[in-house]
Specification:
The chain contains eleven helices and ten strands. By secondary structure, it is α/β, with parallel strands linked by helices. It starts with 7 loop residues before the first strand and ends in a 7-residue tail after the last strand. The structure holds D-glutamic acid and calcium ion (CA). GO terms for molecular function: glutamate racemase activity; ITP diphosphatase activity.
Length: 277
C-alpha cells in the first residue's frame, strides 16, 4: 500500500471542531492535520445558511491551496448542515461531515427511541438530525433544542464554571421531563460540556458525533488508499498538527491545550481570511 503523507484538513467555526481533531489524533496517530477555527466569524449558528456555506467553502479552498489536503472533515454540525452536499459535489477530495455519524451513533445507542438533540439554531432549523434519525429509526420521538449559550460558554472558557453547570441543568430540564434515553451533542463545542451535561441527565447516554466521525474518516482513507503509514517520516518541520484561528491565538490556544493535552506539539497560528462579500 503506497504511503500518502498528505495532510487532512478540518474546519469549525472555532474551538468546537477540536473535539473531532482529538478523536482523529487518537485513531489516526500517523496522520498530519491542518485545522481552521473561524473564531472571528463565530457563531455560525445564527447565520443564514448561504453565509455559512460561503465561509466553509472559503476555508476549504484555503486548506486545499495552502496545505494540499487529501481529505476534508467539516467538524461543525452547522457547516455540515449548510455546506456538505455542495462541497462533496465540487471538491475532488473526500469530504466528511459530522451529522450522519451523530445519527448512526444515536440510533445505535437508543433503546426507547426517545432521542434528544442539542445543537445550534442553524442545525436545529435545518431539520437534518430530525429527518435522518426518523429515516434510520422510524417511529423515533426526537426532541431537538437549540443551545447557542453553550457555544459561548466554551468559547469564553467558562465551561468549567459552577454557575454554568446550573444554567445547563435548567436548560436541559425539558429533555429530562421528555424522558429521553439518548442525547446527541449535535454541536462540536458541546463535548467540552459533557461532564456537566451528564450530571444534569445522569440516566441518559450522551453521543459525541466526533468519535464516530473520526472512525468514518479512517474507513474512508483506508478504502481510498489515502492512509499514511505508521512508520511515516516526521512531518515537514515537525508540524504534524497545525491549528489556525481567524481570531486571537491566545484564547484559542489556551482552551485548545486544556482540551487536547500536552502529549503532542500543537502549532497555533493566526489566519487572515479576506471578507467573502
Ligand atoms: N461548532 C459548530 C457546530 O457544531 C457551531 C457553533 C457556532 O459557531 O454556532 O454547529
Ligand atoms: Ca486577523
Amino acid at each position: 500500500m503506497k504511503k500518502n503523507t498528505k495532510t487532512i484538513g478540518m474546519m469549525d467555526s472555532g474551538i468546537g471542531g477540536l473535539t473531532v481533531l482529538k478523536a482523529a489524533v487518537h485513531s489516526l496517530p500517523a496522520e498530519a492535520i491542518a485545522y481552521v477555527g473561524d473564531t472571528a466569524r463565530m457563531p455560525y449558528g445564527p447565520r443564514k445558511p448561504e453565509e455559512v456555506a460561503d465561509f466553509t467553502r472559503q476555508i476549504a479552498d484555503y486548506l486545499i491551496e495552502s496545505h494540499d489536503i487529501k481529505a476534508l472533515v467539516i467538524a461543525c454540525n452547522t457547516a455540515t448542515a449548510c455546506a456538505l452536499p455542495g462541497l462533496q459535489e465540487d471538491l475532488a477530495i473526500p469530504v466528511i461531515g459530522v451529522i450522519d455519524s451523530g445519527v448512526q451513533s444515536a440510533v445505535l445507542a437508543s433503546k426507547t427511541k426517545k432521542i434528544g438533540v442539542i445543537a445550534t439554531e442553524g442545525t436545529v432549523d435545518s431539520g437534518q438530525y430530525q429527518a435522518e434519525i426518523q429515516a434510520a429509526a422510524p417511529g423515533s420521538q426526537i426532541f431537538a433544542q437549540a443551545e447557542p449559550d453553550f457555544v459561548q460558554f466554551v468559547e469564553q472558557n467558562r465551561y468549567q464554571d459552577a454557575e454554568v453547570a446550573e444554567i445547563v441543568k435548567d436548560h436541559l430540564q425539558p429533555l429530562k421531563e421528555a424522558g429521553i434515553d439518548t442525547l446527541v451533542l449535535g454541536c462540536t463545542h458541546f463535548p467540552l460540556l459533557a461532564d456537566v451535561i451528564q450530571q444534569a441527565l445522569p440516566e441518559v447516554t450522551l453521543v459525541d458525533p466526533g468519535v464516530a466521525t473520526a472512525q468514518k474518516l479512517a474507513t474512508i482513507l483506508k478504502e481510498q488508499d489515502l492512509l499514511a503509514d505508521s512508520d511515516m517520516e516526521v512531518h515537514p518541520e515537525n508540524k504534524q498538527y497545525q491549528l489556525y484561528t481567524t481570531g486571537p491565538v491566545s484564547t484559542f490556544s489556551t482552551i485548545a491545550e486544556q482540551w487536547l493535552g500536552s502529549k503532542h506539539d500543537w502549532h497555533f497560528t493566526h489566519l487572515n481570511l479576506p471578507a467573502t462579500d
